[in-house]
Amino acid sequence: MEHNFYLDKLFGLKENFSVKIISGLRGVGKTTLLKNFAASLQAEGEKVIFIDCEENPTLKTFQQLYEFVDTKTAELDKFYLLIDEIDRVDEWEKAINALFVGAPAEIYVTGTSQKLAEKISELLPENCDVLKMSPLSFADYEKISLAKNELENYLHFGAMPAVLDADKNFAPKILRGLAYEIIFDLVEKNSVSDAGLFRMLIKFLARNVGYSVSVNEFFKSLDEYTFYKTKNFISVVLDSGLFIKVPRFDIKANNHLVGGEKFYCADNGILSGLAKVDEKFFIENAVCNELLRRGFEVSTGRFGTMHINFMATKGDKKIFVQVFLPNGLISARRITRPLRALPDDCEKILISMERIKNPGGVQCMTLKEFLAKG
Q1: Which of 156, 191, 214, 323 is most buried (CB neighbours < 10 A)?
Q2: What domains can you pick out in the chain, each with its CATH number?
Q3: Which residues neighbour 253 within 8 Å (Cβ) at sequence distance 6 or greater?
Q4: Do residues 251 and 311 lie in contact, with contact meaning Cβ atoms separated by under 8 Å?
Q5: Could you list the mean pLDDT of each consecutive 10-residue stretch along the chain, which spans 374 residues?
Q6: CA distance 263 to 155
């Protein structure tokens, strides 16, 4: 279903005078999408050149990529150039720039880096279209899931293609393998200098999902040489989309705060493959990703001395969200105190696994209701 959605998007970009960039986490389905698109084009009688940079070890530099394409297409009047995993090629954007300007081609590329579009835009301003792929939303997952407990499965196993049809007894093993495959891919593509330390950083972020953390604290015990050698690790992680950094926002002062950011993982299943996480943070992680999927900019909120899980902003629209998991130590009324302190014209939502009594002035939703809104 999701692939059909993205396939329709790709066909909607045909004939645009642009480079089409498909980005997303490893394992999210970019290669499958590109192959389906190639098959559809060929069925329409179009000439298609499909290149898998991961499978072709001879394509390491932009010169090699350009010459390879030029040799294959010299006699073609028009063709579709589909390149998978292009960020494995050094300075790939130079080859794409030359092909876009000089070849009669419709160009589509995939990669994990979120900077693909940025690099193309520097060379071809206003001539790139970006299609960002993400794991299934719960609304789409629910339509295709055969599981009886679809919310529980979604919450703990996520919605990456590898686990959609997997038996729940095997899903944890699949997810651990996928998590390490993603890490290995990032190490290889980014020539990470210390794979062991890089893996430790990712596990540190996974264990601390939902907590305010300082990445500098992670590195503080390193010697000066190792620190400078590894200081770009967090940039690599964020650029891949594996984790999202959520800043803090002072609601009263109306400005962002420095430090104490929170990190959330792009998919609950990958998160569970990386570390053991408390149930509340699985819920928080799912809520954060859903807000991002709906196009909101997400921050954590501070209102005086009180804290709000999420402040989501899109244009003039703002919503404030608290996540509540009853544990006998804290009541719904207490957890919603920061929300009730906000002006009455704010949209305020309390999300919990089970329906709870409305504490007044706050909209109460179950997690399933919130996620199913799509």
Answers
A1: 323
A2: 2-132 (3.40.50.300), 138-372 (no CATH)
A3: none
A4: yes
A5: 77 87 92 95 95 91 93 88 93 90 88 85 83 92 82 93 86 94 93 90 93 78 72 89 94 86 96 94 96 95 92 94 82 88 89 84 92 84
A6: 17
